[in-house]
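Hi support team,

I've been running sequence recovery on a batch of backbones for a student project. Most finish fine, but this one hangs at about 90% for roughly twenty minutes before it completes. I'm not sure whether the input is malformed or the queue is just slow. I've pasted the structure tokens below so you can try to reproduce it. Let me know if you need the job ID as well.

Thanks,
M.K.
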């Protein structure tokens, strides 16, 4: 059904584009061209936005500083030249058939007042007056980060953000506490597409089909966001948009390589045709690198690391030894005995210590149709593929041998109406392996989404937006991750939302928003938002916000059925019981059949179909302002009340589906409870098996870990961001974050409701942008206090870390730029995720050519 709808919408858009039916079609039009330079030294400026006010015609300057605006209505027009870090210039001209307009821009320090955001209200607005805590990532950061292929690192200096890394591309991005090994509390969008995997709801950062240098914007909104974005905008929204064809005309090629045997190539070509009516953009890239993941079946380089940690972090020796010692089967990991995983696992990582190279590739093609009314129609398609990335999950490490992800998107945008639809597909049927159990895992899934949104102005100072959307999930794991009766399923979510705002006397702005979501797997959810923004001057604002958000359990939490480790051998326990006073009671039970028909008792992870959604009620006070032309400050204080926490995988937490183990019927009734009690007592040395032993649907014995709603928490915190522009070239930025929490309700014995975030963290950066000498550089530090981590059975101490990243670039001609990027440049080896890899240094150099 969705594919048919996409085809229909695509045909409609192409028909509109081909006919060019607009009210202004009969107007006489002309062409504007020119060159934009920097005042003083006349250096050419590439990437400057050039727009015609009120017409909808726009472009950017190319590598030679030149631009071309086509199909501009003749007569008086105002041309705007704008680029971050320069004073905007407006020129009023009379457009004829051919008009030449050059411009010269004056450099100026970047000011908070110059920034705009779109993610907070789903409409463009000045960042300083947005009714939520938000951060816009500057283009220089996106450019310098691009060669790493690690999109999350662009957020490293944003206030209040948790970035937890394991391996090259296994990242967990979170805001305001309660991180996990597969975090999905921050909704992640690229050009409106939700990038989450259907089964887990988390992101695969290695398969994002763009380089960060090709992003037009990256915005992070912190705090509950369901009032406009619905499910899973629980702790924030990361909104990324790529540049359009007319904003990226010309060709660009970046080649880089360096540490961890890394090499990467990214390319982009875009042009505008038919006097500005059509825009085409094609991108592609390929990368390969080694990984920090190592075998945990023998002591290797991690062994030396654990010795250093024992000396440095006294008092946490036990936790750290476990983190760096040979890998233990997760559910049997309470014994300190190494378990060598066997069973034909198609990877070298767990067998010899060698690693599989991690590769990623992507390709996209986009076609835009530009109308003189300002409307834009878009048809886009692409694909990405990643190989051999290793992820830390609730059942241990998973290696994705190959994940293939094609997508398609159509959109039609006008000043007051936006429509878009997309289809995301993911196939991993060629290989996804649990490194703890050796089980092969399959997933073929798709997400189809259709949405329409409109906006209207009213009563001079009022504005309202509203929209509806429909989403369908289709998931098939071929019985490897779900039971056949739960598998090969299709589920939907239908939503309606709206926001109304009104400005009083230019200083006071009231915002109210609400959304209602209903779906196959959860009851209807109402998410309101109320905000008051007071702006005594254009460059200062104070705000108070009330928000509600919710997060739905994912397919794993509802329906998972997968091996979680090597089978447990309970035959020695059975023989011990037969040799005890219970021997006569067990005489009627065949040897080997007390717990199962063989000595191998499966260790499995199971979902909980009775889970309810997690909810988050947030209260926030904030300030944004430029205290001087060179100093800006952001302050955000918040409190969140979170209820119905869903645990990570734990044994014994879901007695409704998996009650405690019972003795078989062959045991005489008067002795059955004694056998149960003896089993429980003799498993004391293995707490996971002791808590999780059960009988599943077919009556067989298994050790089961599952999920449950675990209680409620109140969290509070403070994020402070500072930025100071010493001169046109030098700038410093920093942030301080404080976090605290209180468990207000704990309903699951044995679960640790820990936020998996430090109480204190800080960032500091110093950057130099010398456009006059074509050199730029930066160094940034991230300082994380040590904290306790608990995600299911993976529990232990995360040591404090101090990580420094550095970049440098030199534009040695109008076409070519040399650059170098270093992450963790002082090689402060650390693990950021309990059960994750030890992360070290990576240095990359490269060159970018623009043509």
């Amino acid at each position: 059904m969705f594919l048919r709808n996409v085809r229909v919408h695509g045909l409609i858009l192409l028909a509109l584009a081909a006919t060019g039916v607009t009210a202004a079609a009969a107007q006489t039009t002309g062409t504007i061209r020119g060159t934009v330079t920097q005042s003083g030294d006349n250096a050419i400026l590439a990437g400057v936005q050039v727009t015609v006010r009120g017409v909808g015609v726009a472009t950017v300057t190319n590598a030679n500083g030149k631009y071309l605006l086509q199909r501009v209505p003749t007569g008086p027009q105002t041309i705007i030249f704008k680029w971050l870090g320069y004073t905007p210039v407006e020129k009023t001209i009379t457009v004829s058939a051919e008009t030449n307009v050059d411009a010269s821009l004056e450099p100026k320090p970047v000011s908070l007042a110059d920034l705009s955001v779109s993610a907070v209200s789903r409409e463009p607005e000045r960042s300083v007056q947005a009714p939520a805590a938000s951060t816009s990532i500057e283009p220089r950061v996106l450019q310098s980060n691009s060669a790493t292929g690690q999109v999350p690192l662009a957020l490293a200096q944003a206030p209040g953000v948790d970035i937890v890394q394991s391996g090259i591309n296994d990242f967990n991005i979170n805001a305001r506490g309660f991180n996990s090994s597969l975090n999905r509390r921050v909704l992640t969008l690229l050009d409106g597409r939700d990038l989450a995997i259907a089964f887990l709801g988390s992101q695969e950062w290695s398969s994002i089909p763009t380089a960060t240098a090709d992003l037009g914007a990256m915005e992070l909104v912190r705090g509950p966001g369901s009032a406009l974005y619905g499910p899973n905008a629980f702790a924030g929204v990361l909104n990324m948009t790529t540049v359009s064809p007319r904003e990226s005309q010309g060709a660009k090629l970046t080649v880089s390589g360096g540490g961890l045997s890394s090499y990467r190539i990214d390319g982009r070509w875009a042009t505008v045709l038919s006097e500005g009516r059509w825009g085409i953009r094609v991108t592609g890239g390929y990368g390969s690198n080694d990984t920090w993941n190592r075998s945990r079946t023998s002591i290797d380089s991690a062994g030396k690391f654990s010795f250093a940690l024992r000396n440095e972090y006294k008092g946490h020796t036990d936790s750290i030894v476990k983190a760096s010692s040979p890998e233990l089967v997760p559910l049997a990991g309470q014994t300190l005995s190494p378990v060598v995983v066997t069973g034909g696992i198609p990877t070298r990582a767990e067998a010899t210590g060698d690693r599989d190279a991690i590769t990623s590739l992507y390709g996209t093609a986009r076609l835009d149709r530009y109308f003189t009314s300002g409307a834009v129609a878009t048809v886009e398609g692409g694909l990405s593929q990643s190989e051999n990335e290793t992820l830390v999950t609730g059942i241990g490490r998973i290696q994705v041998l190959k994940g293939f992800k094609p997508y398609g998107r159509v959109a039609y945008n006008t000043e007051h109406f936006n429509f878009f639809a997309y289809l995301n597909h993911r196939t991993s049927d060629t290989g996804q392996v649990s490194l703890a159990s050796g089980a092969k895992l399959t997933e073929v899934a798709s997400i189809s989404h259709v949405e329409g949104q409109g906006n209207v102005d009213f009563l001079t100072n009022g504005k309202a937006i509203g929209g509806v959307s429909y989403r369908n999930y289709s998931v098939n794991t071929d019985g490897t991750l779900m039971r056949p009766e739960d598998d090969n399923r299709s589920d939907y979510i239908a939503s309606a939302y709206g926001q109304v705002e009104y400005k009083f006397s230019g200083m006071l702005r009231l915002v109210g928003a609400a959304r209602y979501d209903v779906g196959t797997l959860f009851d209807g959810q109402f998410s309101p938002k109320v905000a008051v923004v007071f702006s005594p001057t254009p460059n200062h604002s104070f705000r108070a916000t009330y928000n509600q958000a919710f997060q739905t359990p994912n397919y794993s939490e509802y329906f998972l059925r997968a091996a979680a480790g090597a089978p447990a051998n309970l035959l020695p326990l059975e023989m011990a019981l037969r040799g005890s006073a219970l021997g006569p009671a067990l005489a009627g039970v065949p040897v080997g059949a007390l717990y199962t028909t063989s000595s191998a008792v499966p260790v499995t992870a199971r979902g909980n179909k009775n889970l309810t959604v997690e909810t988050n009620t947030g209260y926030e006070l904030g300030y944004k302002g430029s205290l001087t032309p060179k100093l800006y400050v952001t302050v955000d204080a918040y409190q969140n009340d979170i209820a119905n926490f869903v645990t990570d995988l734990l044994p014994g937490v879901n007695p409704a589906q998996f009650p405690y183990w019972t003795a078989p019927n062959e045991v005489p009734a008067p002795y059955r409870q004694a056998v149960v009690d003896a089993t429980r007592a003799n498993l004391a040395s293995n707490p996971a098996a002791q808590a999780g032993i059960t009988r599943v649907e077919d009556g067989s014995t298994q050790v089961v870990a599952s999920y449950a709603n675990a209680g409620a928490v109140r969290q509070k915190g403070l994020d402070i961001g500072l930025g100071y522009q010493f001169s046109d070239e030098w700038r410093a930025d920093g942030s301080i974050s404080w976090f605290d929490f209180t468990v207000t309700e704990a309903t699951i014995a044995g679960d640790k409701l820990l936020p998996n975030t430090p109480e204190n963290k800080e960032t500091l950066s110093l950057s130099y942008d010398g456009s006059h000498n074509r050199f730029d550089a930066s160094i940034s530090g991230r300082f994380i206090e040590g904290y306790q981590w608990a995600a299911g059975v993976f529990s232990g101490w995360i040591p404090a870390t101090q990580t420094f990243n550095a970049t440098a670039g030199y534009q040695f001609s109008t076409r070519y730029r040399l650059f170098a990027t270093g992450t963790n440049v002082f090689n402060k080896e650390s693990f950021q995720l309990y059960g994750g890899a030890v992360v070290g240094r990576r240095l990359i150099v490269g060159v970018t050519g623009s043509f």
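--
Follow-up from support: It reproduced on our side and the slowdown came from queue contention, not your input. The radius of gyration is 29 Å. No action needed from you.
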